[in-house]
Amino acid sequence: MANTIVIPSSMLPEDGRFGSGPSKIRIEQVHALDAGAKTLLGTSHRQAPVRQLVASIREGLSDFFHAPEGYEIALGNGGASAFWDMACASLIARRAAFGTYGSFSAKFAKSAASAPFLEAPVRYDGEPGTYRLPEYTEDVDAYCWAHNETSTGVAAPVRRVAGSVEQDAITLIDGTSAAGALPVDVSQTDAYYFSPQKAFGSDGGLWIAVLSPAAIERAASVEHSATLDGARRWVPPFLSLTTAIENSRKDQTLNTPSVATLIMLENQVRWLNDNGGMDWATARCAKSASIIYDWAERSEYARPFVADPDARSHAVVTIDLDDAVSANQVVAVLRDNGIVDTSGYRKLGRNQLRIGVFPSVEPSDVAALTACVDYVVERLAD
């Protein structure tokens, strides 16, 4: 039956991409690639044209995040997953405390647990659909959690743990699916890091971090410190944050980046800032998210997965469906009709829709999506 349902074209969104990452890339970003085909693509990343592109990205992100004096924008290859290992190598001196409440917030903690030169991390675990921040913990030098848990659609506060400054502990926040979509005061962090394939509408494989002076100093100190057995800590060049910072100050990366990703990222950062920066972007995402949450609250078969309204993400929205309605069938019909990437996170294993509402997504398309879901569910029941 699923393959026979055709949604009327008048109901369909103008753009059917609602992925939680990779996310929608605007056509203007693709045009930017075309414009740079002869001047940027296929050229050296250490020469002026590409370095000017990186400089524009760093300056634009500093403006977007209202970076305090002394904070720097650094970037490198490997995505946020690489930054977890980089933080283990270069930012955590001995032991870290983690808030974990989903697949992605737990992965950084697992990286720290496997690092032979670090003490076992302290974990503060929360149930999926909620968040759990780390609490003040003796003998830790870093506090870590995710601003937005991509797997569950939970948004957590970003504020320093009381007493952390006095104990010289730094705050490391994974902003991968939050940066550009949720409000943040980066002065409450020492490393606010993310990948560009979410709100910044680019391809993955790159990490970006807003770094405080304390984080920059910590990296320099840790990379020359002794490990638990007294030997000097070995930090591979690829995972050296000080090396990444030195290269970023030259508006380049240590290793060859995807220039296409840089072009699309630069275009997106300018688009966001030209439209009003963080205030505009976060308000737009909040509008799109409220359309879905309000629809689910009114629905007879759908409801928000995150019970606490204050914890509901405005970047990635998760909606549970009644058992009588198969989310897999709904997702399949939507895909057959050109509406893609609405399935729930596979490891969570719920009968659920997961919808990315990043700034590039038009709120009108979000409203059209909810109408299409109703149309499909009604006909699946026939």
From TrEMBL:
<comment type="similarity">
    <text>Belongs to the class-V pyridoxal-phosphate-dependent aminotransferase family. SerC subfamily.</text>
</comment>
<keyword id="KW-0718">Serine biosynthesis</keyword>
<keyword id="KW-0663">Pyridoxal phosphate</keyword>
<dbReference type="GO" id="GO:0008615">
    <property type="term" value="P:pyridoxine biosynthetic process"/>
</dbReference>
<dbReference type="Pfam" id="PF00266">
    <property type="entry name" value="Aminotran_5"/>
</dbReference>
<keyword id="KW-0032">Aminotransferase</keyword>
<keyword id="KW-0028">Amino-acid biosynthesis</keyword>
<keyword id="KW-0664">Pyridoxine biosynthesis</keyword>
<comment type="pathway">
    <text>Amino-acid biosynthesis; L-serine biosynthesis; L-serine from 3-phospho-D-glycerate: step 2/3.</text>
</comment>
<keyword id="KW-0808">Transferase</keyword>
<comment type="function">
    <text>Catalyzes the reversible conversion of 3-phosphohydroxypyruvate to phosphoserine and of 3-hydroxy-2-oxo-4-phosphonooxybutanoate to phosphohydroxythreonine.</text>
</comment>
<dbReference type="InterPro" id="IPR006272">
    <property type="entry name" value="Pser_aminoTfrase_mycobac"/>
</dbReference>
<protein>
    <recommendedName>
        <fullName>phosphoserine transaminase</fullName>
        <ecNumber>2.6.1.52</ecNumber>
    </recommendedName>
</protein>
<dbReference type="GO" id="GO:0008453">
    <property type="term" value="F:alanine-glyoxylate transaminase activity"/>
</dbReference>
<dbReference type="InterPro" id="IPR000192">
    <property type="entry name" value="Aminotrans_V_dom"/>
</dbReference>
<dbReference type="GO" id="GO:0006564">
    <property type="term" value="P:L-serine biosynthetic process"/>
</dbReference>
<dbReference type="InterPro" id="IPR015422">
    <property type="entry name" value="PyrdxlP-dep_Trfase_small"/>
</dbReference>
<dbReference type="InterPro" id="IPR015424">
    <property type="entry name" value="PyrdxlP-dep_Trfase"/>
</dbReference>
<dbReference type="InterPro" id="IPR015421">
    <property type="entry name" value="PyrdxlP-dep_Trfase_major"/>
</dbReference>
<keyword id="KW-0963">Cytoplasm</keyword>
<dbReference type="GO" id="GO:0004760">
    <property type="term" value="F:L-serine-pyruvate transaminase activity"/>
</dbReference>
<dbReference type="InterPro" id="IPR022278">
    <property type="entry name" value="Pser_aminoTfrase"/>
</dbReference>
<dbReference type="GO" id="GO:0019265">
    <property type="term" value="P:glycine biosynthetic process, by transamination of glyoxylate"/>
</dbReference>
<dbReference type="GO" id="GO:0004648">
    <property type="term" value="F:O-phospho-L-serine:2-oxoglutarate aminotransferase activity"/>
</dbReference>
<feature type="domain" description="Aminotransferase class V">
    <location>
        <begin position="42"/>
        <end position="344"/>
    </location>
</feature>
